[in-house]
Amino acid sequence: MKLFEMGPLDYSLPTQIAFGWGRTAEAADLAASLGRRALLVTMKDLSAGPRIADILRKGGIEVEVFDGAESDPSIEGIDAAALRVREGGFDFLVAVGGGSVIDTAKALCLLARGRGSAWDYTIEMGDDRRMGASDTPPLLAIPTTSGTGSEVTCIAVMTNKGLSKKAPIRDPIIFPRIALVDPELASTMPPKLTASTGFDAFTHAYERFFGGALSMLVHVLATTGMRTVVENLETAVNEPDNRAARTAMSWAATQCAMALAPPGGEACLHVFGLPLGAVAHVPHGQALAAVMRVITRESLRRMPKRRPELATIMGLPEESSDEEILDCIEAWLKRIGLPTRMSGHDVTEHRISCLMAAISRDRITKALGEEFGEDDIKRLYLDAL
Ligand SMILES: [Fe+2]
Fold first, then answer.
1. Distance (Å) from CA 71 to ligand 1 centroid
2. How far is the CA of 218 from the centre of ligand 1 (A)?
3. Whole-prediction pTM
4. Of the CATH numbers 3.30.750.24, 3.40.50.1970, 3.90.1150.10, 3.40.710.10, which one belongs to the domain with range 16-186?
5. Cα 155 to averaged position of ligand 1 atoms, centre (Å)
6. Cys-Cys link to 146, which of 4, 30, 186, 320 (CB 3.0-4.6 A)?
7. Does 192-383 match 16-186 at the fold level?
8. Is the model more confident about 87 or about 129?
């Protein structure tokens, strides 16, 4: 069976990747190409932040630390931090942390020389009202989790607490200039965070795998990325000191996100998962796991020709049925400790109207190329309870 369709492709990844165990030691050398004065964005209690600030300072770089990044970065927090960034005269920014920190730094890069609020730059504003920037300071992204792949994407997810909504900024100008991916930094993640961030990595490739026509390049990035997660995540969860599994997961997170670089369709797992984060504060990877079964059933219905390959990625025979694949994915998620239903996060039927208010209908229609009505959305959320 033909697995990919080599149609037109635009691929650009303007991010230099420096990958390897222990390469944090090279941070100052890498940063030197970006300037002399940096704002390092991180989170309190993240030991890698001060450690990398120290490495940069020893390398002659002037560093100011902003350790106020939040998980699920809020518009309010970012807009407040932007005031300091605008005054600071920084040559470049450094992000040290997980996806929330890197996304915060990306938004601060946009606002450093730009106007308005971070929310004005999200796709939620629509193509006609969305703001763009033409001049941003470069970003050195140093992930401390293996999951979001934010170090190689032009996406930053923002939370608008006032509207109880999450929406991404998607703008090529926020691709980090350099991604320093050192698996050692992610090797201290506790099992639950390893599981949820590692599953998030899988889903980035999965979005493109079910996102319509697959070019050969995206096919290779997505499928080998998904396979690597399936082969290594459980080991990384159960054996935190397993260097090979940690290294494989770090690379898989970066590679799975590289599958997202070219514009394309998506399975809509994130579209359905993001409201769970915004409304019920379910951590990102766990929110995706809670809707995985219903979205995969829907994806296989729409694109049955992807079934044999998804089966083999999950380690099943090619001829496996939809239900066998769904059961296999669900069992895998349970083994790594991720609830596979929304009820596992105390989300009950009475919250569904809030989830439906928070979901981006436009994005579903764009991604699936077909109308998706209220009843369809409600049915999927009910099935995920
Ligand atoms: Fe994600």
1. 13
2. 17
3. 0.93
4. 3.40.50.1970
5. 10
6. 186
7. no
8. 87
CA distances from 359 to 48, 116, 162 (A): 35, 24, 15
Q: What is the pLDDT of residues 136-146, one digit of tens each?
A: 999 999 999 99
Give the distance (Å) from ligand 1 centre to CA of residue 350. 26
Class of residue 175 by CB neighbours under 10 A (exposed 0-12, middle 13-18, buried 19+):
buried
Tokens found for residue 226? 């998904």
Which token pair is 85? Answer: 């960034």
CATH of 192-383, one of 3.40.190.10, 1.10.3380.30, 3.30.450.40, 1.20.1090.10: 1.20.1090.10
The pair of structure tokens assigned to 199 is 């599953």
Whether the per-residue pLDDT at 3 is higher than 70: the answer is: no
CA of 99 to the centre of ligand 1 (A): 9
Distance of CA 57 to the CA centre of its chain: 30
| Ligand 1 geometric centre to CA of 255 (Å) | 13
Average pLDDT, stretch 347-373? 84
Distance of CA 203 from the midpoint of ligand 1 (Å): 7
| Residue 134 identity (one-letter amino acid) | S
Environment class of 373 (CB within 10 Å of its CB; exposed 0-12, middle 13-18, buried 19+): exposed
- Two tokens, residue 70: 């939040």
How many angstroms does the Cα of residue 108 sit away from the middle of ligand 1? 20
User: Helix 99-112 to helix 75-88 angle, to the nearest 10 degrees?
Assistant: 50
Tell me the CA–centroid distance for residue 286 and ligand 1, in Å. 10
User: 197: CA distance to ligand 1 center in Å?
Assistant: 8
Query: 285 C-alpha to center of ligand 1: Å?
Result: 7
Residue corresponding to tokens 């190329």:
369
Tell me: pLDDT of 159 over 70.
yes
Determine which helix (DSSP H) or strand (DSSP E) holds 32, and give its type and residue range: none
Q: What is the Cα–Cα distance from 77 to 27, expressed in whole angstroms?
A: 27
User: Ligand 1 centroid to 284 CA: how many Å?
Assistant: 7
**157 CA → ligand 1 middle, Å:** 9
Ion ligand 1 contact residues with beta carbon within 5 A: 200
